[in-house]
Structure formats: C-alpha cells, structure tokens
C-alpha cells in the first residue's frame, strides 16, 4: 500500500450556492422585500464580525446560481448552524440551494514535510504562512473561482497507488506553478475526504478575473493535473459588501462604485508595516509626533504599501540567484513594488526585502519568501523590545561616502543611548545607493527619546543633502 501523506486540519468551510426566485421577489410587497433585506444584512454582517472565522457573499455568473455565501469556522457545527440560520431569515425563503460543498482547510505533507518532521524547527515565517493555510482570510474585494476536484484512479493512472516520492515530486512542480502567481491569486485548498462527493475544493481569489483563468489553464499542464486531475463544475463571481445586497437585488453593479475609476495619488508610496508585525495601537499619534519633527513615518494603514524583511544565513550570491528567480515571477503582478537582497556592511545576516501594494499580496508572498535558503527570521520578530526599519535610503552617488560616515557617527553615538540594542546598515546588492537601517530597541519610548534628540535632528538635516528621496520608517512588533 502506498504511503498517505500527513495532514493537519484547520477551519471548516461551507460553500453555499443559492438561486434567487426572482418572480417571487418581484411579486412580493415592497415592505416585505425591505424587511427581508434589513434582516439578512444584519445576519450576514454579524456573521462577518465573528471572532474566529469569516463569512462572505459573492455574485455568481452564469446559470448555476445567483449568489455564493462562504462560511469559514473552527468547527463543523458552526458552519452547519449558519446554514440553518440563513434558511430561517425571510430573505432565505426567496432562495433555494442549488449546490454546496463541505470541506476543511489543511496543511498537507506533500509540500510541507518539514512541518510534520519537526514543527519546532520550522522557520517562524514559514510557520506563519502555514497557519494562513489552516485559517485563511477571504480577500475583501475581487473575483472568485471555486471548483471541486479529485485524483484519478484509472488502471493506468492511479494517484493513490503511485509511490509517495513520485507524488511529492509532482506536487512540488504543481506548487511552483502556484508560486508564479504569488501576489495576484490567493489560493485556498480545502479537503473533503469523507465530507463531500469530491476530494478537494479549490477557491481562488484575484482582483483580475483573467488571472483566475490563467492559473487554472497553466496548472492543467502540470503532470499532477494532466495525468491525475479530475474536476467538477466551476463557479465564478465577485465578492461584494453585505450592505450592497439591496443594489445586487436591484440589478445594479456590485460592489457599488466598482465601475468607477479609482483616483490615483502622485506621491510615492509609504511603508508603515508588514503583515503580522506592524503596530496598530498608537501608530497615528507616533506618526504625528515624528511628522512634527519632519520625520516621515508612512500613512495610516490602508493607504500604504506593505514591506517584508527576512534574514538569511545563506551565501549571499546563492540567495541572490534564488531571489532573482522568484522576483521574475513577482514582477508579473501590478501589486509588486520591489524585492531585493541587502547585505550588512559588517558581520551579520543578509536580508531579503519585498514590498507590495496590498497586505493580501504581501501575505501570499511571505510564504514563498520563507522557502528561500537559510531563512532564520523576520525583521522585528523578537520576543520583547521594539524595532524600526528605516527604508528607501536612496543616496546621491556623489555623497555615498558622506552618508556612510554619518551613519558610522550615529552608530557610535547610539552605543551610549539608553535602551538601544543594535543598528545595522544593509546595502542592496544590485544598487549600492539603496540602503536600509534595522534598529533594535528595548521599547518604543527609548526609540522615541532618540528621535526627539538634537543628535537625530542633525542627522535628518544631513540626510536632506545626501539623499535623493525621503526615507520611510517602519515600526515592527
């Protein structure tokens, strides 16, 4: 008998596809329709705001359904109860379930064997990424494709009789295809063995509907799919806010305003944090205080780009080759800003810095970045203390020596500053004028005391003469 890969389960999922009885809806009195919308909007809003888990509503294109309601919860009992609760709403009486899929999120042993061999030794960044597979987030906007699938059991191609090593190799190839869509397509794969008619459910999210077609098309050529994949019906639609349900029922475009062009801002993007590490409480007050001292610390969350900084003890040349290959995939997507390898001027680990326009894209990228060789940790990932990242130090080539001299002077000064642990200057391997500074502190107030000092003010003044762009400061937990 072939070996079964280990799995670890997370949240249960129910994809609830509904058809609306439009004739009944049109014939109902307006007050009944309004009451039904008010009730179901409250129900779905309350479900969205639950502590653990998520609920979302989507349009569905085509004839197979009108809406999809997706529930994610820690237990099967909870998702089952939500289905019954929806049926009890007045709006539910205007709908009929045309299809559904019950499954559970999981980490699989094909692509993450090290997690099952020794979980304690798994890099924190990779562990965080794997946790998002067990407890995924549903993107707040964009398109969705859902389809069920199974593996073939033909006499010639029987997945479950194929040796484990061969299956793992095919799934690794399949995973590489998925990685090429990092930052563009969010993939949620759930297991349905013993729960539904198919073996897995695949839910894909993207802000570009064509990307959903592209990833499915490209994956059809992977051996694991070409020889062994079997698929059910595909459903495609778009998420919209619960408050737009009345617009949906009135045949208006949803999300409301989705057909209007987004306004753009000519200012350069700011960096205020990275997924899983940014301070939220008190950031606005901190930014205001720094702004008063002419220190730019990014815009409030929601207007920023998102930065990831991971440290590696691998050979910098080897690391750079891997990053170059990964970056070539990232650059296919509009949400990618930059990814590069930085080396410290003295002893220490190299850093991979990746900047994205959206938090969901950065979340997705973090898993792929964690797979890079020698990753030992993430910037700001300390059990105590506080960290700042001064990023986008773009030095005028004619003043590079002046900048380095200024940093060395500040570094010597910091050695005597209370609460300062360490500051490291790292330089982009591909552009020696691009640098960032990683500083570790005992606490926020120690860093702020330094930012308030005359010495730092003099440093900022010097920077105006030697930098070609304004640096941004990132505050990490």
CATH topology descriptor of the largest domain: Alpha-Beta Plaits
**Mind telling me the CATH superfamily name of the largest domain?**
Apc35880, domain 1
Annotated CATH architecture of the largest domain: 2-Layer Sandwich
Based on helices, strands and strand pairing, what is the structural class?
alpha+beta
Mean pLDDT: 84
How much helicity do the residues have?
25-40%
Classified by CATH, the class of the largest domain is: Alpha Beta
Protein architecture, described:
This protein is an alpha+beta fold and 477 residues long. It folds into two domains: 7-249, Apc35880, domain 1 (Alpha-Beta Plaits), CATH 3.30.70.1030; 283-476, Alpha-Beta Plaits (2-Layer Sandwich). Helix content is 34%, strand content 28%. The protein is globular, with a radius of gyration of 25 Å.
What key phrases describe this protein's structure?
477 residues; alpha+beta; Alpha-Beta Plaits; 2 domains; 9-stranded antiparallel sheet; 8-stranded antiparallel sheet; 15 helices; globular
List the helices and strands and how they pair.
Elements: E1 7-20, H1 22-27, H2 30-48, E2 54-59, E3 67-73, H3 76-88, E4 95-108, H4 113-117, H5 124-134, E5 143-151, H6 164-179, E6 185-191, E7 200-206, H7 209-219, H8 223-226, E8 229-231, E9 235-238, H9 245-249, H10 283-292, E10 306-312, H11 316-330, E11 336-344, E12 350-356, H12 359-370, E13 375-378, E14 386-394, H13 400-414, E15 420-428, E16 431-441, H14 444-451, H15 454-466, E17 472-476
Antiparallel strand pairs: 1-3, 1-4, 2-3, 4-6, 5-7, 5-8, 5-9, 6-7, 10-12, 10-13, 11-12, 11-15, 14-16, 14-17, 15-16
Helix pairs in contact: 5-12, 13-15
């Amino acid at each position: 008998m072939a070996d079964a890969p280990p799995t670890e389960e997370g949240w249960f999922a129910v994809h609830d596809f509904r058809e609306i009885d439009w004739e009944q809806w049109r014939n109902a009195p307006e007050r009944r329709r309004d009451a039904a919308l008010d009730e179901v909007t409250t129900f779905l809003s309350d479900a969205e705001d639950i502590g653990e888990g998520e609920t979302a509503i989507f349009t569905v294109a085509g004839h197979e359904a009108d809406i999809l309601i997706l529930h994610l919860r820690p237990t099967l009992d909870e998702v089952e109860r939500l289905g019954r609760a929806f049926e009890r709403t007045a709006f539910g009486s205007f709908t009929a379930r045309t299809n559904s899929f019950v499954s559970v999120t999981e980490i699989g042993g094909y692509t993450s064997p090290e997690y099952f061999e020794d979980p304690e030794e798994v890099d924190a960044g990779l562990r965080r990424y794997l946790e998002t597979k067990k407890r995924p987030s549903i993107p707040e906007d964009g398109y969705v494709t859902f389809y069920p699938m199974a593996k073939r059991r033909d006499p010639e191609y029987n997945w479950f009789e194929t040796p484990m090593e061969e299956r793992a190799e095919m799934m690794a190839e399949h995973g590489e295809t998925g990685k090429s869509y990092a930052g563009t397509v969010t993939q949620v794969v759930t297991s349905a063995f013993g729960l539904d008619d198919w073996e897995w459910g695949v839910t894909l999210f993207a802000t570009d509907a064509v990307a959903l077609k592209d990833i499915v098309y490209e994956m059809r050529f992977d051996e694991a799919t070409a020889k062994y994949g079997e698929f059910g019906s595909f459903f495609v639609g778009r998420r919209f806010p619960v408050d737009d349900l009345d617009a949906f029922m009135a045949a208006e475009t949803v999300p409301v305003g989705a057909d209007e062009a987004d306004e753009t801002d000519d200012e350069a993007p700011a960096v205020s944090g990275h997924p899983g590490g940014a301070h939220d409480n008190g950031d606005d007050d901190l930014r205001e205080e720094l702004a008063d001292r002419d220190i730019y610390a990014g815009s409030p969350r929601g207007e920023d780009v998102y930065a990831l900084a991971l440290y590696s003890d691998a050979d910098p040349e080897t690391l750079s080759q891997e990053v170059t290959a990964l970056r070539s995939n990232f650059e296919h997507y509009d949400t990618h800003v930059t990814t590069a390898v930085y080396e410290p001027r003295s002893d220490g680990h190299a850093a991979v810095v990746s900047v994205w326009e959206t938090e969901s894209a950065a979340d997705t990228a973090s898993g792929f970045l964690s797979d890079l060789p020698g990753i030992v940790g993430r910037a700001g990932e300390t059990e105590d203390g506080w960290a700042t990242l001064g990023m986008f130090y773009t030095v005028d080539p004619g003043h590079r020596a002046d900048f380095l001299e200024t940093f060395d002077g500040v570094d010597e000064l910091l050695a005597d500053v209370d609460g300062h642990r360490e500051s490291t200057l790292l330089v982009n391997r591909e552009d020696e004028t691009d640098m960032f500074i990683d500083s570790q502190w005992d606490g926020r107030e120690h860093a702020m005391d330094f930012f308030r000092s005359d010495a730092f003010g003099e440093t900022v003044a010097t920077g105006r003469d030697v930098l070609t762009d304004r640096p941004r400061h990132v505050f990490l937990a």
